[in-house]
Amino acid sequence: MKNQSNIDYNLVFILLLLFFASCISIYSAQSSGQYVGNFLLKQVLWYGVGCGIIAGVITLDSDQLKKITWYAYGLGLVLLVLVVVLPESIAPRINGAKSWFKVPGMGSLQPSEFVKVFVILALSRVTWSHHEKYPVKSTGTDFILLAKLGATTFVPFIIIMQQPDLGTSLVLLAILTGTVFIAGITWKLLVPIFAGGASIAASILYLVIWKPEWLEKYLGFHQYQFSRVYSWIDPYTYQSSIGFQLTRSLLAIGSGQTKGKGFGQLQVYLPESHTDFIFAVVGEQFGFIGASILISIFFLLIYHLTKVGMETKNNYYTYLCVGVISMITFHVFQNIGMTIGLLPITGIPLPFVSYGGSSLMGNMLAIALIFSIRYHHKKYMFSTKE
């Protein structure tokens, strides 16, 4: 390491807090009697792998990151295609989705978790290159940039939707949205686009409720995706079937009340609580206070990432920060929102806390970019250069 003083120890501290939160929550979840595997040990091992990822990526400066961007992006697309076309003996279908590779001795690997970070790299590279090529802005150049960003995102988006994996697809759209806002594109283009997007989303929601067969026939949606909307709107009507997970989550969080039932005191049966519904475990054990502390840690993380993005004078680094912030923020709000019934269930894990090797390594790869930015951060007296 060239200089340990360049290591972002504040970010290290925040990750340690999330690590302890993850260990405590997963240990409690696996002790509830419904599991036989030691998920805590595996999560600790995945955190170790994630630290290795950070140690490798932190040595890469902006020029090196730009050079590997399209190789990583291309590799990601190849993996996404393979997971769709390979037989189920290699890429099994789990819960209706074909999103994982079966890896001997490792379990499963979900390439889309890494593709999210590759897309952040690609969008940052596209935005930076565009502004280098067109230093003078106009509506025409902004439209070209918008088209480039859209094409870069929608190629993996379309492939992921074939799995189908709606949750990850929405994460890609969140990353695209954040990049578009920071790219300096004129509002003359953005207002009609986002207004049109909101209208399309509202129309799709209407069709899901009243004309789901149209979406199945013409847009390739699947019935299980509609079920998530139905269980979100009226979970207690479907609590014996598609609304079971949400109603149990609400019961677990509500029963925790203010202070919670105490460490290890889980009384509400909630399937797969160690993964996507880990927040319900926190709510039941530690109540409103514990859940609020966990949310505060995430706000602290997002604040720190925002601070890093604002301090750097390197525009490329700023684009990377915005992509990572968009990804993590969407994950946190979507996951917590779905566990408390504010948003539909999409199968998105809680970053750094939910159990899952692919998810954790993908998030650690994203955070590794922030460590790299801070590690190569330079400040010059009497200059705005970096």
From TrEMBL:
<protein>
    <submittedName>
        <fullName>Rod shape-determining protein RodA</fullName>
    </submittedName>
</protein>
<feature type="transmembrane region" description="Helical">
    <location>
        <begin position="316"/>
        <end position="333"/>
    </location>
</feature>
<feature type="transmembrane region" description="Helical">
    <location>
        <begin position="166"/>
        <end position="183"/>
    </location>
</feature>
<dbReference type="GO" id="GO:0051301">
    <property type="term" value="P:cell division"/>
</dbReference>
<keyword id="KW-0812">Transmembrane</keyword>
<feature type="transmembrane region" description="Helical">
    <location>
        <begin position="277"/>
        <end position="304"/>
    </location>
</feature>
<dbReference type="GO" id="GO:0032153">
    <property type="term" value="C:cell division site"/>
</dbReference>
<dbReference type="InterPro" id="IPR001182">
    <property type="entry name" value="FtsW/RodA"/>
</dbReference>
<dbReference type="GO" id="GO:0015648">
    <property type="term" value="F:lipid-linked peptidoglycan transporter activity"/>
</dbReference>
<feature type="transmembrane region" description="Helical">
    <location>
        <begin position="39"/>
        <end position="58"/>
    </location>
</feature>
<keyword id="KW-0133">Cell shape</keyword>
<dbReference type="GO" id="GO:0008360">
    <property type="term" value="P:regulation of cell shape"/>
</dbReference>
<keyword id="KW-1133">Transmembrane helix</keyword>
<feature type="transmembrane region" description="Helical">
    <location>
        <begin position="190"/>
        <end position="209"/>
    </location>
</feature>
<feature type="transmembrane region" description="Helical">
    <location>
        <begin position="143"/>
        <end position="160"/>
    </location>
</feature>
<dbReference type="InterPro" id="IPR018365">
    <property type="entry name" value="Cell_cycle_FtsW-rel_CS"/>
</dbReference>
<dbReference type="GO" id="GO:0005886">
    <property type="term" value="C:plasma membrane"/>
</dbReference>
<feature type="transmembrane region" description="Helical">
    <location>
        <begin position="70"/>
        <end position="94"/>
    </location>
</feature>
<keyword id="KW-0472">Membrane</keyword>
<feature type="transmembrane region" description="Helical">
    <location>
        <begin position="353"/>
        <end position="373"/>
    </location>
</feature>
<dbReference type="Pfam" id="PF01098">
    <property type="entry name" value="FTSW_RODA_SPOVE"/>
</dbReference>
<feature type="transmembrane region" description="Helical">
    <location>
        <begin position="7"/>
        <end position="27"/>
    </location>
</feature>
